[in-house]
Amino acid sequence: MDFTFVSGNLGLDLAGTIGHRRSERIDLLATPADLARWTVAAGLLDTPPAVSDDDLHLAITLREAIYRLASAARTGGPFEAADREVLNRAAEHPPATVRLGEAENLERAGDLRAALSSAARAAVELLGGPQAALIRECEAAPCTRLYIDASHRRTRRWCDMRGCGNRAKAAAFRARAQRQG
């Protein structure tokens, strides 16, 4: 399974590196190398940073705190103090640096903690702002990805139309065809 970035927020995309949370969990950050690849795929860094097992544990702790906080925001529940502390501690670190390169291109640099800080800051801005009310969970079974519903009527049902939405619509079509046939 490849990384996907369809949540509308980098913090939610980090939380989305666990697939199918309530069934057969798929962990896309199983190794330090996976986490290093994610930082580049997420556009946080241009080159993969050094990542230790301790760094991976830190990232997973942050990922799970973001997921629980976003889930609480979605359901109207309270934020747990321990999760808020994990998020705030990660956001305190200086974020990845960006600069305009000589080839008129965007360059991103930093270590793993800088990359995690950037993701944590995105989550802080989401959870502390008005878009927190727009957090939804994908309705496609067994997907559990959280996303921001920025659709015009706020009726988006799936995390991604090309994946979950397409599968759900195809299944509904097959069910209708079977009933008629």
TrEMBL record:
<protein>
    <submittedName>
        <fullName>Putative RNA-binding Zn ribbon-like protein</fullName>
    </submittedName>
</protein>
<dbReference type="InterPro" id="IPR023286">
    <property type="entry name" value="ABATE_dom_sf"/>
</dbReference>
<dbReference type="InterPro" id="IPR010852">
    <property type="entry name" value="ABATE"/>
</dbReference>
<feature type="domain" description="Zinc finger CGNR">
    <location>
        <begin position="135"/>
        <end position="176"/>
    </location>
</feature>
<dbReference type="Pfam" id="PF11706">
    <property type="entry name" value="zf-CGNR"/>
</dbReference>
<dbReference type="Pfam" id="PF07336">
    <property type="entry name" value="ABATE"/>
</dbReference>
<dbReference type="InterPro" id="IPR021005">
    <property type="entry name" value="Znf_CGNR"/>
</dbReference>
